[in-house]
Write a structure and sequence with these properties.
The protein has about 350 residues and is of the alpha+beta class. It has two domains: about 160 residues, no CATH class; about 170 residues, Heat Shock Protein 90 (2-Layer Sandwich), CATH 3.30.565. It is about 65% helix and about 10% strand. The strands form two sheets. Strands 2-4-5-7-6 form a five-stranded mixed β-sheet, covered by helices on one side. Strands 1-3-8 form a three-stranded antiparallel β-sheet. The radius of gyration is 36 Å and the shape is elongated. The chain starts with a helix and ends with a strand. The relative contact order is 0.06.
């Protein structure tokens, strides 16, 4: 790849040189081959001087030194350009300018005009090369950053990169957007006088939306267990309203939950999986949810599977749970699923963490 990039640079500079030589041909001895070749070498040197030294130095927080180095490079560039201009180009340019002045009746000093023109050319070319070098350095920096990110993802050597990737997966599983939450509150206010039951359902759904969008996480990305329990209860209540309270659900909580913390929205993913794939109208086999808090957090859920055609499931939610658990708890947790036979069972053990 490196040899290929070098070849691209060589081809690029040849194209630039040939283009300029074609656009500004050698007329009446104004452009000499030596001046053109040495000037191109000067341009190439200044380009890589800035892209390989000045900008990396500036990005590395050595900004004062970078500015001084840039000024030094600009001074050398201007001096060399001046010498090339004076000894290889200046006399022909002054003669051509004097001829043009006479034809146009311009009485200004041709040497002064030539000097101003030379300085203008020096400045214009310098900034063109400077911004070109900046663009190349930025493009290369982005390419290097992407390559480094890909390496971190493939080798899984950096937790920070994994955290960003998992956060993106987590955000995709969130209920959104905010306007839906505001709209639900509007509907609640309008329906309250008409149907208290329906308005209560909308208020409960609004609370579900609010929690899903605005969890108050600490620096470790954790929330209070009591908030998670309330969220579970709201989701269960909504499903009961949908099915006229005909769903068989057994949800119990045991132990002291005060101050206990965990990562958010893990339990709800398992519960929603039960609603999606479970047969919940059988009084002999309810959706059973057990949450126990002791020396650890224990969460169990089981449901009888639906018979007949099943909804397509890609397992994204379960995969997301595993990745988030692994990132936060490392090896200090266990998560087992038994999907054999006519029942679905999941059991999750988490360490007890309090504020």
């Amino acid at each position: 790849m490196k040899k290929r990039r070098i070849s691209y640079h060589i081809i690029g500079w040849l194209i630039i040189g040939l283009t300029e030589y074609t656009v500004y041909p050698n007329k009446d001895g104004v452009y000499s081959t030596v001046f053109f070749a040495t000037r191109m070498l000067l341009f190439i040197g200044l380009f890589y001087y800035n892209s390989e030294l000045v900008f990396p130095m500036y990005a590395g927080k050595r900004r004062v030194k970078a500015v001084l180095v840039a000024i030094g490079g600009a001074a050398v560039y201007a001096a060399v350009f001046y010498l090339l201009f004076k000894h290889l180009y200046y006399l022909d340019f002054e003669a051509a300018l004097s001829k043009a002045n006479k034809q146009m009746g311009n009485k200004d000093n041709s040497a002064a005009l030539a000097m101003r023109g030379m300085l203008g050319v020096i400045v214009i070319y310098y900034f063109v090369l400077l911004f070109g070098a900046m663009f190349y350095w930025l493009q290369r920096s982005v390419r290097i950053a992407k390559g480094e990110a890909a390496r971190l993802e493939n080798e899984k050597l950096q937790d920070e990169f994994e955290k960003i990737r998992l956060q993106n997966l987590f955000l995709r599983s969130q209920i959104n957007p905010h306007f839906l939450h505001n709209t639900l509150n509007f509907f609640y206010a309008k329906l309250l006088p008409v149907s208290p039951e329906l308005s209560d359902g909308i208020l409960t759904l609004s609370n579900v939306m609010r929690y899903s969008l605005q969890q108050e996480e600490d620096e470790r990305g954790m929330v209070y267990l009591d908030k998670e329990i309330e969220h579970l209860q709201n989701v269960i209540a909504i499903h009961q309203m949908r099915f006229s309270n005909n769903l068989n659900i057994d949800f119990t909580v045991e132990g002291d939950t005060d101050g206990v913390k965990l990562i958010p929205l893990v339990f709800i993913t398992l519960v929603e999986n039960g609603f999606k794939h479970g047969h919940l109208t059988d009084g002999q086999a309810p959706l059973t949810i057990r949450l126990e808090v002791g020396d650890e957090i224990l969460f169990r859920i089981s449901n009888r599977k639906k018979t007949g055609p099943r909804e397509i499931s890609h397992g994204i939610g379960i995969d997301n749970i595993r990745k988030r658990l692994e990132y936060v708890y490392k090896t200090d947790y266990s998560f087992e699923i038994n999907d054999g036979g006519g029942f679905y069972q999941a059991e999750l053990h988490l360490p007890l963490i309090k504020k």
